[in-house]
Specification:
about 350 residues, alpha+beta, BirA Bifunctional Protein, domain 2, 2 domains, 7-stranded mixed sheet, 3-stranded antiparallel sheet, 10 strands, about 20% strand, elongated, binds 5'-O-[N-(L-tyrosyl)sulfamoyl]adenosine
């Protein structure tokens, strides 16, 4: 190997090194010249095959080349690293003068907002808020409420059964079981409201969901009358829907009350004249209610000669629909933020 060849190798290696502009290209260069199979390394290995008189000069020249290339490689590697870093810093620079991005803040679900609004009204009227189980014994959902097995009224509550062979266990179809649970645990006076989720085996349409929310109300004491029920519900409806609301009570049947009523307000969309929302009647039903049936009081060990009481149950989704003109109950549970974000009165 002549010194001229070594000189040519040096020039080529340095030229290619200058052309390497990335860490990958540098690694590739290093492998090609200085790596285990690199050109310089191979040539050093071949020294033994040269004539003895040639060896010292070629050996010295190759070792100098190796040192020269190694130090050139280190310099180039530093240059490339610094320029890559400079490029990254330039690309990632933050312009602190740009306005910040406003984070999207969620809001409470309209049903949660309505539950809070309704329970607040009743809390100010002296009612305590309690909650109870969504998975319920048939005894509490039906029997203790004066709806015995095989009673046709059971069909009104299209129930989802969890277990029926040994002990009837259901997803509660209404919040009324909590009347029994509360009275079993307390002595009168009782004044509670019970918000909660209910489930029914029901075909879903614009006004029916298979899961929805109710708020139950219960007041039991000595000398509680239907007049208290009327006054309390009228005050509630006016606080929620406006002081100008007119209210209507009509007879209705529920096995756990006697007498039973349905409670309606005059339609706020047509002011009682009749429209699509109120089905032309001018009235919108809000809830079922009545005087607690003496048998229900007996079932929890209360003396119906001494105590009387009333109860009601209302559908929360229907209240939101009425108050804000929501035409279809299915909007509530589709998770569509365009719908939900409209109820942004109470941010999280
Ligand atoms: C009646 C008298 C009392 O002393 C106490 C409570 C009651 C109410 C009774 N427990 C009950 O569940 N009656 S109800 O079957 O008529 O439902 C009450 C309200 O729940 C309805 O007016 C409606 O607003 C709502 N509701 C019922 N099924 C629904 C529903 N909301 C949405 N989807 C459904 N599938």
């Amino acid at each position: 190997m002549s010194t001229q060849e070594i000189e040519q190798l040096r020039e080529r290696a340095l030229r290619e090194l200058a052309e390497a502009t990335s860490q990958e290209a540098l690694a590739d260069w290093h492998a090609r010249y200085l790596g285990r199979r690199g050109e310089v390394t191979q040539r050093l290995r071949q020294l033994g095959s040269l004539a003895p008189e040639e060896r010292p000069a070629v050996g010295r020249a190759l070792n100098e080349l190796k040192q020269r290339l190694e130090s050139a490689y280190e310099d180039r590697e530093r240059q490339v690293r610094e320029s890559e870093l400079a490029e990254r810093i330039a690309a990632e620079t933050v312009d602190v003068t740009l306005p910040g991005r406003r984070p999207a803040i969620g809001t409470l679900h309209p049903v949660t907002q309505m539950i809070r609004e309704v329970t607040d009204i009743f809390a100010h009227l002296g009612f305590q808020v309690v909650e109870g189980p969504e998975v319920e014994y048939g005894y509490y959902a039906f029997d203790a409420l004066n709806i015995p097995p095989e009673h046709p009224a059971r069909d009104v509550w299209d129930t989802i059964f969890i277990e029926s062979e040994h002990k009837e266990i259901v997803l509660r179809p209404h919040t009324s079981p909590m009347q029994i649970r509360v009275m079993e645990r307390r002595q009168p006076p009782v004044r509670v409201v019970v918000p909660g989720r209910c489930y029914r085996y029901e075909a879903v349409d614009a006004t029916h969901e298979w899961h929805f929310h109710q708020i139950e109300g219960l007041a039991v004491d000595e000398r509680i009358t239907m007049a208290d029920l009327k006054g309390t519900l009228a005050e509630f409806a006016r606080q929620l829907f406006g002081r100008e609301r007119r209210v209507r009570f009509r007879c209705d049947f529920f096995p756990f009350v006697e007498p039973g009523v349905d409670f309606a307000i005059d339609c706020m969309f047509c002011r009682g004249e009749g429209c699509r929302v109120c089905g032309g009647s001018g009235w919108i039903e809000i809830l079922g209610a009545g005087m607690v049936h003496p048998q229900v009081l007996r079932n929890v060990g209360y003396d119906p000669e001494r105590y009387t009481g009333w109860a009601f149950g209302m559908g929360v989704e229907r209240l939101v629909m009425l108050k804000y003109g929501v035409p279809d109950i299915r909007y509530f549970y589709q998770g569509d933020l365009r719908f939900l974000a409209q109820f942004d009165r109470i941010p999280l």
